[in-house]
Backbone:
């Protein structure tokens, strides 16, 4: 997939994955690297940036196997941002599809 | 690359960040390795999937905007691009409409919600032109694709690969340059200045004395008593005024000379101790 495409949707993907449940870094990294072919290491800086911007919060939780995991959750601000990004995404893909002749959303 | 190598390489690359942040980041990657291991993967497999430590560290560094002060401005030329204070997506967020492909690709469609700066970042005080001139286009280009091109999508400048784990370590080449600079600066600037200052000082102090002696010799040739008295008075006045002037000038000259020398010695000491970080040049 085109590099430029991936860059843009990474924020959206991370926020969207956190919408329904809290997830830990490894989970986010491995899911994203499987689906949109990014390297695992890029997710952690992004999470840190999102946390610094106040869009996600983190907490530590013990797990049955392995070390305690750092879970990430959406903040109120993160939810608003996710809605914005989703609206933008839908509008954007709809207009692009119109031009390239695909199915419009 | 195994876990230990990966973590120490990452730590070395991140050494410019505050140590709390580095520990935080390193902890996250350690956890990543441990979870991966518990899922039955091996260390080099996990490391390969993470992307190279250099590239990962570079994302962290480009997300962090260091305070822009005079000292770091002087160092810009010596610092590799990961330290160029650019926030990812910054340049494309500016002006271009939010619905363009560029805006879409830059990692965000709209401005962040909060108007106040994020707490983990230093205030962005660099001039506007500076941001535009250093967009970090290349590292931005590679933002999400690290490690997917055989782990060698591009090479960082050689001097970022410091051979040691010490976060305050100075690359030997940097240090050599600084010592060379200090030596040349001492020989060609400070030694001549010191010599000139001493000569000037001697001149200022010596001049009234010389004049006094000269006038004494001249007046002693005049036989008349009136001239003798007048000459002595003139000599005394000129000597007194000269001495006062000389004392004033000498006081400030010596003071400035001493202060300047102390400042220079401190500058050199700091320079050699901290290398590229301490030098103002």
Residues:
């Amino acid at each position: 997939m085109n590099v430029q495409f991936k860059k843009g949707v990474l924020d959206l993907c991370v926020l969207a994955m956190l919408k329904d449940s809290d997830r830990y870094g490894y989970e986010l990294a491995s899911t994203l690297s499987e689906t949109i072919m990014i390297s695992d290491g890029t997710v952690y800086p992004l999470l840190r940036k999102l946390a610094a911007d106040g869009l996600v919060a983190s907490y530590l939780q013990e797990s049955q196997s392995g070390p305690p995991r750092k879970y990430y959750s959406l903040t109120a601000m993160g939810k608003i941002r996710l809605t914005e990004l989703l609206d933008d995404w839908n509008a954007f893909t709809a207009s692009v599809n119109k031009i390239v002749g695909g199915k419009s959303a | 690359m195994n876990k230990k190598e990966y973590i120490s390489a990452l730590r070395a690359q991140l050494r410019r960040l505050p140590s709390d942040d580095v520990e935080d980041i390193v902890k996250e990657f350690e956890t990543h390795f441990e979870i991966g291991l518990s899922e039955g993967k091996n260390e080099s497999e996990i490391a390969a999937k993470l992307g190279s430590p250099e590239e990962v560290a570079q994302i962290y560094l480009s997300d962090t905007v260091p305070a822009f002060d005079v000292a770091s401005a002087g160092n810009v030329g010596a610092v590799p691009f990961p330290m160029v204070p650019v926030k990812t997506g910054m340049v494309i967020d500016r002006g271009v409409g939010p619905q363009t492909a560029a805006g879409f690709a830059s990692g965000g469609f709209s401005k962040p919600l909060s108007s106040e700066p994020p707490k983990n970042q230093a205030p962005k005080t660099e001039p506007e032109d500076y941001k535009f001139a250093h967009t970090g286009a290349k590292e931005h280009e590679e933002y999400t694709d690290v490690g997917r091109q055989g782990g060698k999508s591009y090479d960082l400048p050689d001097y970022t690969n410091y051979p040691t784990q010490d976060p305050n370590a100075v690359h030997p080449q940097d240090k050599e340059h600084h010592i060379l600079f200090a030596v040349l600066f001492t020989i060609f600037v400070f030694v001549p200045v010191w010599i000139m200052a001493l000569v000037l000082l001697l001149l200022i102090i010596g001049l009234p004395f010389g004049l006094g002696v000269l006038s004494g010799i001249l007046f002693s040739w005049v036989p008349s008593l009136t001239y003798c008295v007048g000459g002595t008075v003139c000599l005394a006045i000129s000597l007194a005024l000269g001495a006062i002037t000389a004392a004033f000038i000498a006081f400030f000259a010596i003071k400035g000379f001493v202060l300047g020398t102390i400042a220079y010695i401190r500058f050199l000491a700091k320079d050699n101790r901290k290398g590229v970080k301490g030098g103002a040049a």
Summary: DSSP finds eleven helices and no strands in chain B. Residues 175-277 of chain B form one domain. Chain B touches chain A through 48 residues (CB under 8 Å).
